[in-house]
Amino acid sequence: MAESGGAGTGGGGGDVVSLKDKGNEFFKAGNYLKAAALYTQAIKQDPNNPTLYSNRAAAFLQLVKLNKALADADMTISLTPKWEKGYFRKGCVLEAMERYDEAVATFQEALLYNPQNAEVSKKIKRIAQLAKDKKRSEELSNMRSHVDMAKLLTYLKSEMSEKYGAEEYWIDMFSFLVETMESAVKSWHDTSKVDPRVYFLLDRTKSDTEKYAPVVNIDKAFESPHTHSSCFSFLRQYAVESFSKAACLIVPKNIISYPQVWKGQGFRKWKHGLNDGFFVQFESPTLRNLWFVPGSNEKGQNFCRDPEILDITAHEVLPRLFK
Question: pLDDT tens for residues 277-302?
Fold first, then answer.
């Protein structure tokens, strides 16, 4: 709100007061453009009057002319460094700019000159929470846009190297797994879902790519024991006939009616909470791995947490595909 009094005025006499009062009337009426124009006229007659700059800063803030509002708030402070209103104005502008840390520091300066100001204390508390929320939102956005599954799965390289020996062989499998998982994570981030599919790493020298596609949809596979068994039989035969070197199953938890691997007891007991998410099961002739990727929604953003390693003997979503 514009000030009718202030920290003191300079020269200019009645004309300045009249212009300021008229500006205040327009400000109260919501005509911030006219108010700013009147404050500007008054400033020309009395350029060292901090109240005029403070009032114009308030008008510019309402007009979302934030850089101009900030300049006027700074001028208010420079003219009267011990007047809390200048810091209050600047804090409000910095808040509008979403420069929350600076806004909190500025409001704290305002409290130095009026420790009893309850409005400023409330603003500090609220903006501190906004700053925390903004930081977390930025962290989530950064994690969503920088999915580095290769880094998360680095531990798997030594196991693949031990199983397959030649790097040119296992590195192809590792890249296949990383790309498949990253694609699923990005899909979850964008849509909060993944499609139930099995991705096959076809042998470039043997596979008939016109007959065998690298992706098979399995959306009906988990409706019952019968559909599960039929799908498994088909996939095992598909892996053999397509000369696939590996396969990677992606299936969302919420479509699985059978088998509900998170409801086991004993060594099969689920230890990963009630989160929604999806399973990733990697299959090859000599290596099998299983993960659960928990999904959540935080700060209005879909987000995947790091893959959680599962005991495939306890929680396999499909039996072994490669004999």
Answer: 999 999 999 999 999 999 988 777 78
Closest-CA residue to 86 (of 101, 107, 104)? 107
- Measured CA to CA in angstroms, residue 297 lies from 32, 144, 280, 306 at distances of 40, 12, 20, 14
Calculate the alpha carbon distances from 303 to 142, 180, 190 in Å: 11, 17, 9
Distances (CA, A) of 176 to 77, 162, 199, 276: 61, 18, 9, 25
Question: pLDDT tens-digit profile of 84-115?
Answer: 999 999 999 999 999 999 999 999 999 999 99
Spatial distance between the Cα atoms of 39 and 253, rounded to a whole number of angstroms: 63
Q: Is the peptide bond before 214 cis (omega within 30 degrees of 0)?
A: no
Distance between CA atoms of 149 and 11, rounded to whole angstroms?
Answer: 68
Structure-block tokens of residue 14? 């009645």
| DSSP tally for the chain: helices H, then strands E | 12, 7
Strand, coil or helix: what is 304? Answer: strand
Among 258, 271, 192, which residue's Cα sits nearest to residue 225? 258
Distance CA 33, CA 24 (A): 12
In whole angstroms, give the CA distance from residue 267 to residue 315: 10
- Where residue 7 falls among pLDDT bands split at 50, 70, 90? low
Interatomic CA distance for residues 11 and 45, integer angstroms:
8
Beta bridge partners of 303: 296
Is the distance from CB of 69 to CB of 57 less than 8 angstroms? Answer: yes
Q: What is the DSSP letter of 9?
A: -
For the residues of 22-67, what is the DSSP string, one character each? Answer: HHHHHHHTT-HHHHHHHHHHHHHH-TT-HHHHHHHHHHHHHTT-HH
Q: Report how far residue 303's alpha carbon sits from residue 320's, in angstroms, rounded to the nearest whole number.
A: 30
Beta bridge partners of 164: none
pLDDT tens digits, residue range 205-236?
Answer: 999 999 999 999 999 999 999 999 999 999 99
Query: Distance (Å, rounded) from C-alpha 313 to C-alpha 323?
Result: 16
Read off the tokens for 225. Answer: 């024991």
